[in-house]
């Protein structure tokens, strides 16, 4: 089961799957050039599978159901539960529409995603075993999120980011050749505030000859990069490339790319089959660079 811990300012993410994949993620607040930036790291590793009993399986919960979600809660105010349902549905629809996945209509009836809301931070920590800095945990395979009322950044960051990951992975699967920057670019693209000043940052990087080629971006193990400027640029580029692929060429082509990755084709082959104008990652890099300079 893939699990993803979240904290609004500093957190370690540990995703454990029942397949052979294990994902380790980490988020830290870093200060660079006088600005504090929240950074998310991700790296896929291979380990043996390990089963995890979901924290809410053996407990009695109240439920509130919507078209695509079931929210589980106990002593939580109805207004927070209602806001959670409304935000989750809005994000689901906007993410599916933005990525071109609307026609596939994931998560209906018994296949709905689950959101567990514990009574408070203490209850969440006791039941999940998570540390005090954790504001939520997401399970990709179970399509489930655990949190508590008003966890820092839940509605603005955690919810759209995790739903972006889960919806993307629901479509393409876990075991494939999708580069980590694409996965992170999709997820972070859902946090609307992150799109601000992207072009300005990239043009500055180009001027200073610091822009990272996409071939290099695909090779970087971002979890172990200590240079905050490189880390910030990594995610800025990831968001920009996703924006380029979707806005410049349309959602249908992006869906074709995702289908090719789902079929476990390598990224060069997937890009060529989906977009035609690119034969490989290097050509995508050139096209994206022209887009940034427009």
Walk me through what this model shows.
This protein has 294 residues and is α+β, with helices and mostly antiparallel strands. The chain has two domains: 62-172, Glutaredoxin; 176-293, no CATH class. 45% of the residues lie in helices and 19% in strands. It has helices at 78-99, 121-128, 154-172, 180-189, 198-207, 214-219, 228-249, 251-262, 267-275, 281-293, and strands at 3-6, 11-16, 21-32, 35-46, 62-65, 69-73, 113-117, 136-139, 144-147. A six-stranded mixed sheet has the order 1-8-9-7-6-5, covered by helices on one side. Helix 1 (78-99) crosses helix 3. The longest helix has 22 residues, at 78-99.
Number of domains: 2
Main sheet: which strands, in order across? 1-8-9-7-6-5
Structural class: alpha+beta
Shape by Cα distribution: globular
Mean pLDDT: 82
- Number of helical elements: 10
Model regions low in confidence, pLDDT < 50 over at least 5 residues: 8-53
Helix percent band: 40-55%
Total beta strands: 9
Topology:
Blueprint: E1 3-6, E2 11-16, E3 21-32, E4 35-46, E5 62-65, E6 69-73, H1 78-99, E7 113-117, H2 121-128, E8 136-139, E9 144-147, H3 154-172, H4 180-189, H5 198-207, H6 214-219, H7 228-249, H8 251-262, H9 267-275, H10 281-293
Parallel strand pairs: 6-7, 7-9
Antiparallel strand pairs: 1-8, 2-3, 3-4, 5-6, 8-9
